[in-house]
Write a structure and sequence with these properties.
Blueprint: E1 4-8, E2 18-24, E3 37-41, H1 42-51, H2 54-59, H3 64-69, H4 71-80, H5 95-100
Antiparallel strand pairs: 1-2, 2-3
Helix pairs in contact: 1-4
Length: about 100
C-alpha cells in the first residue's frame, strides 16, 4: 500500500476524517505505476485487495466508478459507511483471491 496521509476523506466510501493511503487504480505490477491513484481509507484499501486479484483490478475495476458499481465491494461499502472513522475492521482474503493468488 502507498504512503499514509492524515485526516482526509476516502474517495471510495466517502467517510470523513480517516487516514488514507494511495491506491493505484491499475496495480503497479500490471503497469499502473504512473497511472491514476485514489486516496482510500485503510479498511477500503485492504478490502479491495482482499476481494480482487491484481489482474481483476487492472482489467475490469480500474476506476472508482467501476469499483463502486461492483456488487461485492458495494455490500462492503454499505457496511463500512456506518463505521466510525477510526475503526480498523479485520480483513480476510476471499477464497477466489487465495486460490488465484
Amino acid at each position: 500500500m502507498g504512503r499514509a496521509v492524515k485526516t482526509k476523506s476516502c474517495e471510495l466510501c466517502g467517510r470523513e476524517g480517516v487516514e488514507t493511503t494511495e491506491h493505484h487504480l491499475v496495480p503497479k505490477e500490471m503497469g499502473g505505476t504512473f497511472l491514476g491513484t485514489a486516496d482510500l481509507c485503510r479498511p477500503c484499501h485492504k478490502q479491495i485487495h482482499a476481494l480482487y486479484t491484481n489482474e481483476e483490478l487492472a482489467v475490469r475495476l480500474h476506476t472508482l466508478e467501476q469499483l463502486k458499481a461492483d456488487e461485492q465491494i458495494g455490500r462492503y461499502l454499505k457496511w463500512i459507511r456506518k463505521q466510525a472513522p477510526g475503526s480498523l475492521p479485520r480483513t480476510r482474503k476471499s477464497r477466489a483471491v487465495r486460490e488465484r493468488g
